[in-house]
């Protein structure tokens, strides 16, 4: 479970990015986080990724207290997470297979296991025929699917997607979101940061709205959620 308790984040220049945020996301939930530019969405993601720490309050992700997490333990914590970025962040000189395999090699996965698992993961995202392709040979939607496959490589319990449809066309956006729903149905917790209201309305999942650093609305398919405390 993910839980934020009275979390405030103030940057050195005095900007209050988050102000007294309370949020609970249960295992296996699918949550959209929405809000205007500067609302605090990016800071929330950075806190969950442990790129930033809260100025006040507590953040718990399963057994981890992120505010007290030592730098030595951060890499182990991040193995619980699969992250998908708007700009894909693929290695241009590596094939699709190698991009996905890289995430597994980093944690010391044996080569035999990598060779067995990568094709299975690529099949999940519909790229089994692009194993030897390079990113420049793929469409934007295909590159984002590679990024999603890489996020799944180490079987994380939580997937965080930061504007995953920001650089692809509407048709591909729908495909990426359907893949995220599919992954969610495998039992993963999925958090999607997005500004695309049409997609949010279409999928009718829980929606957390942030404005000026505060959660101003928390709904599930049009109904208010009781998961925020």
Give an overview in words:
The protein is α/β, with parallel strands linked by helices and 229 residues long. Helix 3 runs parallel beside helix 5, helix 4 crosses helix 5 (140-152) and helix 5 (140-152) runs parallel beside helix 6 (170-185). It contains 7 helices and 11 strands. The two termini are 13 Å apart. The protein has a 7-stranded mixed sheet with strand order 6-7-8-3-9-10-11, sandwiched between helices. A 4-stranded antiparallel sheet has the order 2-1-4-5, with helices on one face. The model has no long low-confidence stretch (mean pLDDT 91). It folds into 2 domains: 1-80 and 156-229, P-loop containing nucleotide triphosphate hydrolases (Rossmann fold), CATH 3.40.50; 92-154, no CATH class. The protein has helices at 41-48, 74-78, 96-106, 111-124, 140-152, 170-185, 197-203, and strands spanning 2-10, 16-25, 30-34, 56-61, 64-65, 81-84, 158-162, 189-193, 206-211, 214-220, 223-224. Strand 7 (158-162), helix 6 and strand 8 (189-193) form a beta-alpha-beta unit. 35% of the residues are buried.
């Amino acid at each position: 479970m993910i839980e934020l308790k009275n979390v405030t984040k103030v940057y050195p220049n005095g900007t209050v990015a988050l102000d007294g945020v309370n949020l609970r996301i249960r295992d296996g939930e699918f949550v959209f986080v929405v809000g205007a530019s500067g609302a605090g969405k990016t800071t929330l993601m950075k806190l969950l990724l442990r790129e930033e720490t809260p100025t006040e309050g507590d953040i718990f992700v399963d057994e981890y207290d992120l505010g007290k997490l030592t730098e030595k333990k951060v890499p182990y914590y991040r193995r619980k997470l699969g992250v998908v970025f708007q700009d894909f962040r693929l290695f241009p000189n590596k094939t699709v297979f190698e991009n996905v395999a890289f995430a597994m090699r980093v944690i010391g996965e044996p080569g035999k296991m990598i060779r067995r698992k990568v094709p299975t993961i690529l099949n999940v995202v519909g790229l089994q025929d692009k194993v030897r392709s390079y990113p420049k040979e793929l469409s934007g939607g295909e590159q984002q699917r590679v990024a999603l496959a890489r996020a799944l490589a180490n079987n994380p319990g939580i997937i965080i997607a930061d504007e995953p449809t920001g650089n692809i066309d509407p048709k591909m956006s729908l495909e990426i979101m359907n893949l995220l729903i599919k992954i969610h149905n495998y039992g993963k917790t999925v958090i999607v940061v997005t500004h695309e209201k049409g997609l949010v309305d279409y999928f009718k999942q829980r929606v957390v709205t942030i404005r000026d650093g505060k959660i101003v609305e928390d709904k599930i398919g049009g109904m208010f959620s009781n998961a925020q405390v």
